[in-house]
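User: My collaborator sent over this chain with a note saying "see what the structure looks like." That's all I know about it. Can you take a look?
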Amino acid sequence: MNRTLMITVDVEEWYHSMWFDINKVTDNPPSFCEKDLDSILGLFKGLKIVATFFVLAEIAEKFPELVERVAEDGHEVACHGYSHDSANNLGEQEFRKQMKKAKGVIERILGRNTLGYRAPNYGISAKAINVLEELGFRYDSSVVPCLRIPGWYGFPRAPVTPYRPSKEDLSKEDSNRNFWEVPMAVLPTIRLPGGGGWFLRNFGSPWTKAVVKMLLKKGPVTIYVHPWEVSDCHPNVKGIPFHVFRRTGKYVRDAIRDLVKDLQIEATTIKDLLENERYKEPRKL
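Assistant: Without extra context I'll predict from the sequence alone. Here is the result:
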């Protein structure tokens, strides 16, 4: 059985959550970015694993030293856009402009190419991926191949393991393309989400573990988490739904430890996975 797991981290602030409008909650949201990243980097160091961090460029501009720390710990740094705007809410020209800016910010900090992208809130389209390819990205990890959730996401006919997406339809493959889609973990039989984050905390870690275990039979598995979900820092702000911060902190840390140790999983970065012989392309990543 394949045992390859890509643990991915969407580096954003707690108030970037889609579950509430921060402007209606507070005019001055506190930032816990530094402490949150300390928590998750410490967790990964203790487990001796590497991960892929999708970083918002506006956060990279504020905390360039944190981006450097992520890279110094052996993790892959990829792009989460400039601000937390879904690609589906931006016109093609504005998306291209923001992605070019975001890629430049991260590459100036690291001094090397940024190869991967994940869309905020997993809002992605074939046109957006075509733009990414034009700008020099080599993979996207925004497709959730689950049943369609109105107002959220879902590509129920897309492959559940890494594939080369069609330029016209993200649910279809194009074996001749030199660009990869690395989809999020879903229950492969009935296509329900289970790739971590909100689902890990609110459905419970046994749910995510069951999804990962079943999906491992088909190939590499990708899950996600946010730094604020691993951290014990919570904003003292009223008006935030209970489920947003439910089981953050120790519960999530223990769930990740359990996944890695109990299932004897090899955790790797997306970049390293795609450099494997199985995914070798004419132009190496």
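A starting point for your reply to your collaborator: The chain has one domain: 4-279.
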